[in-house]
Every structure is written in C-alpha cells, then in structure tokens.
Fold each of these.
Amino acid sequence: MTKEELVSLYVDGGLSLSGVAKRIGSTTTTVQRNMIRLGIPRRKDGGMSGINNPSWGKPKSQAQKDKISSSLTGRFIGEKSCHWKGGRISRAGYVYVHSPNHPQANASGYVCEHWLVAEKALGHYLPTGAVVHHINGVRSDNGNTNLVICENNSYHRFLHGRLTRLFLDGYCLVKDDCPQFKEEE
C-alpha cells in the first residue's frame, strides 16, 4: 500500500477508512496505521454524526422528540431482539420464562419457571412470602413432582436442614418423618 494509493482513495476520492480498506482488501486498522506511518492526516469532517451534525445541541420541539422516541421504542426488545432465545433463559441454574404481565416478573419481564408451574398446579398466584422448593435440588428440574410449595422461607430452610441431615448424616430428628426408621420397624 503506497502513499499515492491512500491519498487518491482517502483524500482525493473521499472514501472512509472502511471504504478504503474494502477497496484494497485490508482492514480498517491496517489502513489507519499505514496512514499514520506515511504521514497522511485524517479528515476533520467526521460525517454528520455527533458534534458535526448541524442540529447537535440545539433544542428540539416536542414533536421532534416524539418522532425520535417512537422510531426507537420497542425496536430491539423481546422477540425483536437479536438475542431472543424464545423467551426462556437460564441464570444461576434456574430457568426463567418471559412473562412481562406476571406480578413477580423482574425488570426484564422474566419469572422463575418453577413459580409458574406451582401457580398452574394451584390455579392462582402464589401468596406473598411463599417459596418453591426443588425436592431433588436441581434448580432446572421444574416438573410438578419435583416441587414443594413452602408457605414461607422458614419452612423452606427447615426442609433443607432436614434433607441435609437425612442425606449427609443418615438420620432425622423426627422418627415418623424418616424413611430409614420406617424400614427398620
């Protein structure tokens, strides 16, 4: 890439750095480095974006603001987003489902799938303070038979303590609740 080539394409021809790169089959970074090495100054026009735009910093009427807002509103959210994966995402092992009208939906409109499964089994929303427990401990296993609805977090913690004692220590504190004692009788 010679200085004459760059001057004719960039300075005289008015091509952008990316235009020059495409024309000569190179990258923008390579073109920019060669321009610096050969002492070819960058143009100051910068196009019509940002501070070079003649309406930059000037007050806009409410109609202009509304037009800009309506052209951008909702363009890249939900199903229109390039990152859309069908409304199901996984975070910290839990499966979340896109349900923006649900009372427990987060700011992005997602709800834990195990809440939705439990609510479907109950036939109504879960009460405030309720916790859904995964029996087998697998957070993504949201089958009806793997979920227990706890009335509050205290009971949920009680279940975890009981399961820990059963599986790690092999015994329970209450004889009637422990399958090990029932087998011995």
Amino acid sequence: MIKARRIGHATFETPDLDRAIAYFTDVKGLVLNAKEKGRAFLASKIGLLTISLEQGGEGSLRRISFEVAPNADFTDMAKTLSIQGVRSELRSDALLGIGKVLTFDDPMAPPSSCSRNGTIWVSTTRCSAPTR
C-alpha cells in the first residue's frame, strides 16, 4: 500500500488554456508561475505547485500527485503495485522541482479521483513551482 501524506498537485487538460488560467488566478487566487507552449503552472502564494494545465481536447483531470514520507521506499511501492497488476515506472525527470517520482496508471481509481488513462505520481518532494 502507498501511504500518501498529502495531495501534491493536479494536472488538468483544458481546451482553452487562457480561460483556465484566468479561472484559477482570478477565482481561486493562485499565481501563474510559468507558461510555455501548451502548458501553464500555477502555484499557491507560498510558491508550491498546485495546478498544472495542459492544452487538450477536453476538460479533464489527467494526473494527480501524492506526497509520501521522505524515507518511503519506491522499490517496495513498485513491488506492491506489481503484485496488484499495476505497472509503474520510477522517474527522475517528471517535473522541475520534483526528485524521484513513481508513476503509474491506476485502473482501479474511480473516475472522480482520476480520469481514465490518468496517471498518479508519488514523490517524497513537496513540489515548488517551476521558475521561468
């Protein structure tokens, strides 16, 4: 079992990137930290990455991340997932500001938690928003 300590950040796909940025900054009070072709990163006022937006065909939750304890063993988590029939991948290049990340597609996640074909990230790092 993965023992999540907190939700890290969420990545949403949106057909209208500028409208989504306006919503999260004007209505939800987040700060646009960086914008690049087809992507934007929004942070809390203390600088932690909260929302990542990606230009896409429909509005949906694409990925969600959970923070685990700093001493969490990614190898053990990957073995547990494998026993449950879930393939995972250990990555170190997932997003600026995040160290090691264990990614996996969770076929058991309910649609309200993660969209179909969504990816769950597990990291020990509280993610600071990328800098421009």
